[in-house]
Amino acid sequence: MRRGLVVTAAAVLLAAAPAAAVAPPTGWNGDNPFLCELQQAGFGPTGPHPEADPYCVEFDKRHQSVADGGVVQFLSLEPARTAAASPKCFYFQSDHWRGSLVQDDPSTKTYEWDGHYFFDKARGDGGVWVTNFNVNGHTFDPGSLPGMPPQDAKFFGPGTGGFITHNEVPVDPNCAQRAQQSSPYAPLRRGAVGCLGAHGGMTPTSIGGVSLGEPESRVRAALGEPNLIRRGFLRWCLQAGGSLRAGNAADRSGDAGQGDDPTIVLIATSPAYSLRGVHPGSTLRALRRAFRGERRGFTAAGARVWLLSRRGGLVAGVRGGRVAYLALYDRSALRTGAALRTLLRRGG
Q: Mind listing the pLDDT tens digit for each residue in 229-266?
């Protein structure tokens, strides 16, 4: 039963997502890219003004029950929704999904999520973002759905995530001309646009699916192009906040080229990554309770460094009584406290 529901959710989500693009996908936090009124369609097939372009609409799709035929009614309305959207130059959709056996019995819920999607025929972009993604009442990582391409899966984590494809949506010259004459785009906002989902978790030797010792080429293949390269650290922002940083011995900045030095330090400042229940943002008290063999080491980049493992290379940086970051390092490459301090200062 569970596998069947996961496959069903996968089919729906992958149908909403753009196909694999010519250019690599980038992360998306679901923000509406267009200046438009978000029309409320409820359970209906369109918003009150389906002629608008940009056409931005919100649907309630939470009546997909089996016992009373709700799922049949939902499916009967999808062609009209598609027909209203497909001729537009600029389209944004927000929706709320819930499937159940019996509509009024929460214990029979089978799947649920909230989604945002868009396409832009002037630029050739399209995006999909979901949150609160769960199956049978349990949080589920959309990136692990059957059929999800690895280059897209890395933008998801438990229950949430999203990405934008580029140069895949067919460009319409008329739409491009319209965009030049009168911009349909909302002002850029600070946020998680272009940031990764928290995928891969944290282990004593890896963070976000990247392990110590891996060459830069493999790190880039796993995570995509970094948002920033500074003093030998490739940096990716996270949709959950904070960042993931992979450092090697080469002290370089602003280099769009690719080296192949091994990764000797991994730093997570995002609360999405944790070990023994401790994550960036946890209190010093929680850190000391989880790692009873810890000892204070030195100060680097404004944080007091706590050595959490005498055998392995695991440390935490603490500022103001809270964990600022968790870091893994290669003990064979950084054999002294001074060498570790230098790398942590570069990664700060």
A: 888 899 888 877 788 999 998 888 776 566 788 999 99
For residues 325 and 316, the answer to whether their CB atoms sit within 8 Å is yes
pLDDT digits (tens, 9 = 90+) for 25-58: 888 888 899 999 999 999 999 999 999 999 999 9
CB 220 within 8 A of CB 268: no
Please list, in sequence order, all residues whose beta carbon lies within 8 angstroms of the beta carbon of residue 190, skipping any fewer than 6 positions away.
Answer: none
Give this prediction's pTM. 0.58
Identify any residues that bridge with 196 across adjacent strands, giving them in sequence order: 238
Rounded to whole angstroms, the Cα distance separating 224 from 154 reads: 9
Q: Is it true that the peptide bond before 54 is cis, omega within 30 degrees of 0?
A: yes
Return the amino acid letter for 97: W
Alpha carbons within 13 A on the beta-carbon side of 260: 1
Q: Nearest-5° angle of CA 131, CA 113, CA 189?
A: 30
Q: In one letter, which amino acid is 248?
A: N
Output the CA torsion sign for 11, 16, 19, 21: negative
Q: 3-class secondary structure for 175-233?
A: HHHHHHHCCCECCCCCCCCCCECCCCCEECCEECCEECCCEHHHHHHHHCCCCEEECCE
